[in-house]
Write a structure and sequence with these properties.
Blueprint lengths: L1 H12 L6 E6 L2 E4 L4 E5 L2 E5 L3 H6 L5 E5 L2 E4 L4 E5 L2 E4 L4 E5 L2 E4 L4 E5 L2 E4 L1
Antiparallel strand pairs: 1-2, 1-12, 2-3, 3-4, 4-5, 5-6, 6-7, 7-8, 8-9, 9-10, 10-11, 11-12
Length: about 120
Amino acid sequence: MRHALVAAAFILASTSAVGQTCQHLGNQVFCDNGVTGQRIGNQNFYSYPDPQRAAQQGLPSSSQDIGNTRFYNNGVTRQSIGNTDFYSNGNTRQQIGNTDFYSNGKTCQHIGNTTFCN
């Protein structure tokens, strides 16, 4: 589940050049840039500090997991194979140890219930 919300945090923050830190508490995630997420069953719900801007940028407000594929409501899909996620928009994420490496140069490190991204 942590990776589900972290992947969500990546997509939510992928338009930002500024790093972010996210706290994971149960089925919820809270990021220092105001982005939040909640997982209920196989669905994720995302909230943004500026919903209108998020909609203009095409960011998803929800997603659903079916098998190893996540379907975002903005049309992007993510397929997980082993330690790599392949996004339909061309991005990839590979997990090595407690660090995620994204094809756009972003990295995220997981320490306990906190994720630090550059």
